[in-house]
Amino acid sequence: MKELLISLLNVFGFAFWVEILTETPNCTYYFGPFISQQEAQIYQVGYLEDLKAEDAKGIKVKIKRFKPNTLTIA
User: Fold this and answer.
1) What per-residue string of b and e applies to 52-72 under the rule 16 or more CB within 10 Å gives b?
2) Is 16 exposed, middle or buried (0-12, 13-18, 19+ CB in 10 A)?
3) pTM for the complete prediction?
4) What would the pLDDT profile of 4-20 be if each residue is shown by its tens digit?
């Protein structure tokens, strides 16, 4: 049931996504979709840990409602 709701929210651009920008490498990453901002905040911790383990620098995080066209932009 939750997956259906997330899919519907995502179709209409109302799902939450974690946007992570890094300076090194110069990339933008999108993780989601999530049903709530709180859920996205919980999961962002793991994404940040992974990027830090890969030695990413200049990390900036935003959580927003939208629908990305691409999940990774280099």
Assistant:
1) eeeebeeeebebebeebeeee
2) buried
3) 0.90
4) 888 988 888 899 999 99
